[in-house]
Amino acid sequence: MSEPALEVRFRGGGFVARRKRGVGITVFIVLVLLAEWGTRTGVISALTLPRPSDVALTFKELYESGLLFKHLLPSLSRLAVGATMGALAGIAVGLLIGLFSLARAGLVPLVAALFPIPKIALLPLFVIWFGIDEMSKYALIAFGTFTPTVVATYAAVDNVDRTLIRMGQSFGLKWRSIVWKIVLPGAMPGILSGLRISLTIAIILLVAAEMLGAEYGIGAYILQAGSLYDLERLFAGVVILSVMGVLVSAAIAAVERRVLRWRV
C-alpha cells in the first residue's frame, strides 16, 4: 500500500512583511492607558507628563475655539510647498548624478559638503536672504529635504541591477527606454524610502522655522506653550506633529503600493 501524501509547507516567503491589523493601535492604546494610570496614581509626576485625558480636553478646546485650524493650516501649507520644492529638485539632481558621469564628478562633492550641515543653523542666514516671512521657511524646509533626497536617489540608481541594463542594451533598447523601463522602476523603492526620511526631516525643520517669526503654526503654538510651561498644550502640539508624521508615512506607503505593484 502506498503511503499517504504529506503536505509540504511553502518556504519561499522571502521575508515578506505580513500585515498584522490592529497591533499598532493596540500598542498605542496600552501606552496611553499606562500614562493615564501613572499620572493619576502619582507614579509619574504631573511636572513630567500631563494626563492624556487633559491633553484630549486641550484638543477639544483647540477645535471648538477654531485655533486648531488656525495653527494647522499654515503649517500644512509650508510643509507642502517647501517639501515639494526640495523633493522634486532632489530627485532631479539625484537622477542626474546617477545617470551622467560628468554630473556625478561635479555634484557629488558639493552634496557631500552640504549634507552634514545642520539645516536649523542656516535659518538666520535664510532670514537675511529671504526675509522673515514665508519664503525663508519654504527655503529652509526645501533645503533640508533636498540633500537627503539627492543621496537616496542616486544611491537607488546605483543599486539598479546592471545585468538588466546590459540585457536592455543587448536587445537594442534606446537610452531613453532603458532609463524609463529599467532604471526608474528599479530605483523607485530606494527613492520612496529616501522620501520617508526627507519628509520626516521636513517636519522637524517646519517646527524650527515656525519658532522664529511666525504668529500661527504648530511650531509657534509649541513655543508659546513652552514659554508658559503649559504641558497640556505643549503635548497637544507634539501629538499633532506625530499625527502629521504618521499621515506622511501612510501617504508614502500608499504610493508604494500603487507604484510598486510589480514587486512581490
What is the element layout, followed by pairings?
Elements lengths: L22 H19 L10 H14 L1 H33 L1 H14 L8 H8 L3 H25 L3 H9 L4 H36 L7 H10 L3 H29 L5
Helix pairs in contact: 2-10, 3-4, 3-6, 3-8, 3-9, 5-6, 6-8, 7-8, 8-10, 9-10
Protein name: NitT/TauT family transport system permease protein
Pfam families: BPD_transp_1 (PF00528)
InterPro entries: MetI-like, MetI-like_sf
Account of the 3D structure:
With 264 residues, the protein is mainly α. It has one domain (50-259): MetI-like fold (Orthogonal Bundle). It has ten helices and no strands. Helix 6 (134-158) packs antiparallel against helix 8 (175-210) and helix 8 packs antiparallel against helix 10. The protein is flat. It is a multi-pass membrane protein. Belongs to the binding-protein-dependent transport system permease family. Residues 72-252 form the ABC transmembrane type-1 domain.
Task: Write the CATH architecture name.
Answer: Orthogonal Bundle
Number of helices: 10
Helix content: over 70%
CATH superfamily descriptor:
MetI-like
How many structural domains?
1
How would you characterize the largest beta sheet?
A: none
Query: Class, according to the CATH hierarchy?
Result: Mainly Alpha
Spatial gap, N to C terminus: 41 Å
- Proportion of strand residues: under 5%
Shape by Cα distribution: flat
Extract low-pLDDT stretches. none
Summarize the helix and strand pattern as letters. HHHHHHHHHH
Secondary-structure content class: mainly alpha
- What is the CATH topology descriptor? MetI-like fold
Mean of pLDDT: 85
Q: Calculate Rg over CA atoms.
A: 24 Å
Strand elements, count: 0
